[in-house]
Amino acid sequence: MSNKALKLAMEEEHDRRLYNFQFLNSVAAIIIDKIGGFDEKLIHFLEKGVSEVLSNDILMIEELNQYIADHPLNSTWSLKTNKNKEAFTCARAIVQDKGIISKYDVLQENYPVIDGPILLGGEKADVQGTSALNCLHTYFITILYFLSSIFSDEESAKSYMKESVFNVDKSPLAQTTMLPEHIMSADIYPKLQKWLYFYKDEMSPPQGELIFTTLGYAYGGSREDTRYNSKLLRAEDCSSAVAKWVGSKEAFSTWHMKRYYNGTCDMVDPNCQELAKTLLPFKGEFADVMPGMVYAFANGAHTGIVTERITDACFRSLSYSRDIPKVEGLGYNIECLPCKEYLFFSVIGDSAIEINVVDQL
């Protein structure tokens, strides 16, 4: 047998990281080509226009977030905890601080890329672990949208962005989450329908959806959204990803995991049934914990997979997490026993074998 769960997790981290940088490269290349002949006056016009677009985006998401806060019923977790405002704000800060500059300059001056395994939320230069890439994605997306509206018209620019740039059916970067049904009768709805980040197609509910850019994390794992089961690299939270890696048919939560570990999970619940099929509580010593085992915080709501044990008290893990701007997405972290208490699980059907994390990156 092979350590399938760990391999799936590491491959997903690699694929997301690769896609994020490929997207950045491709969008930046399009923009650089379009503005190659711009003089200083046109560049200044572009900077002013992009900053205004982002300011309007901030106002729109503030209004939507206030509506959600006032009418919380029927809102998905990923909608209620969306981080669009943070992405728009940090993208505008780049425009105001640096103007319209190349992808290489932005990365090297502000977000230098370092090689090797990245520790999530670790070094200041940790691009992979922080929300820096989401800021850059939003920065370049807005520039491209503004340029497209200049060269054509606003509606054509929106269609181009939604079909060719966001590509929500396949892209790990652009995710959608359902808007609440009752929003259709609200004063905000006509304005929302005209916004770039409003989305509706044959898979959408009648009220439509909100597009959000992400490095992979969404609170609640977007379990409630129409595209959750149709996308390979979709928005996940820590437990929905673990459930996927271990082969569960249900995206169980850390709450279910802890109850299952303690023998109090209601076995009528499909989540508990899937846990019994995929995970086995490990009650042994930490010295016997192996790569590929799953862990959960005993006194918190987080889970992930063990990639290697590095000392007598610490292990490296791989998990989805978000604490913008310090942490966003799927990344590696160091966990240590003196700091937290952990519950460990063996993955049924997997064998715990050593996999060199550095060689996999």
Explain this structure.
A six-stranded antiparallel β-sheet has the order 4-9-5-6-7-8. Helices cover 43% and strands 15% of the residues. It has two domains: 4-213, no CATH class; 238-360. The longest helix has 31 residues, at 4-34. The protein has twelve helices and nine strands. Strand 5 (294-297) and strand 6 form a beta hairpin. Helix 2 runs antiparallel to helix 4 (84-98). The chain has helices spanning 4-34, 40-70, 77-80, 84-98, 103-110, 132-151, 154-166, 189-193, 238-245, 254-261, 270-278, 357-360, and strands spanning 174-178, 198-199, 209-213, 279-282, 294-297, 303-309, 314-323, 327-336, 342-347. The protein is of the alpha+beta class. The chain starts with a helix and ends with a helix.
Q: Which structural class matches the secondary elements?
A: alpha+beta
- What proportion of the residues is helical, as a percent range? 40-55%
Low-pLDDT residue intervals, each spanning 5 or more residues: 112-122, 352-361
Number of helices: 12
N-C termini distance: 22 Å
Mean pLDDT: 87
The main sheet comes to: 6 strands, antiparallel
Identify the strand order in the major beta sheet. Answer: 4-9-5-6-7-8
Secondary-structure element pattern, one letter each: HHHHHHHEHEEHHHEEEEEEH
What share of the residues does DSSP label as strand, in percent? 5-15%
Quick structural gist:
This protein has helices spanning 4-34, 40-70, 77-80, 84-98, 103-110, 132-151, 154-166, 189-193, 238-245, 254-261, 270-278, 357-360, and strands at residues 174-178, 198-199, 209-213, 279-282, 294-297, 303-309, 314-323, 327-336, 342-347. It is an alpha+beta fold and 361 residues long.
